[in-house]
Amino acid sequence: DLVEKGDLLARLDEERLGIARDLARAEVQMARANLEKSKRDAQRQVNLHQDQVTSEFSLEQAELKARIDEGQLKVTQARLAVAERDLADASIISPVDGEITRRHVEVGELVEARTPLFDLAKIDRVKVVVHASELEITRLRKGQEAEIRVDGYPGVVFTGSVDTISAQADARTRAFPVEIVVANDRPERLLPGFIGRARIRGR
Hints:
Elements: E1 2-3, E2 8-11, H1 14-50, H2 56-88, E3 91-93, E4 98-103, E5 118-121, E6 125-132, H3 134-137, E7 145-150, E8 158-165, E9 176-183, E10 196-200
Antiparallel strand pairs: 1-4, 2-3, 4-5, 6-9, 7-8, 7-10, 8-9
């Protein structure tokens, strides 16, 4: 399927994510209330200590409780930020114009974090990899025009130009990989995985 940048590809379970966000908000409110109370208690202990009514130990415990509650508030705020981001990311948007070459999940399927959903190929420009022999590689230059033919489109000729010439031969084939860039802007679109033949002009 062809998609454009900004198209909606999938939508995660917003209800579940919304509940998680609401729970995180409640935890922040509770942590904030605990911190406010522990700060009041600590200040009360300071006043009592100044009046020599309470011990040094009670003051230290009250101040420690306030610091712990302050840390707990930061933890819950971080959890809330994650929950809000998860909810905002519930809509999976295509980052580029391209084509979905594979779907890894189906509607209603449960997925975990970092589970791949789609393979999306940006195919407005494609690279065609050919392999040149030792004799051929010396005659190639970046920018040379090339003609590409594939079995999927009999009689159709795609044009491109040499973009990258490897300086090292493949250890198994002893051939040099050469990349040809082709503008994929015609109705017959080259797709990832196509096998074809290339003719480089001047070769």
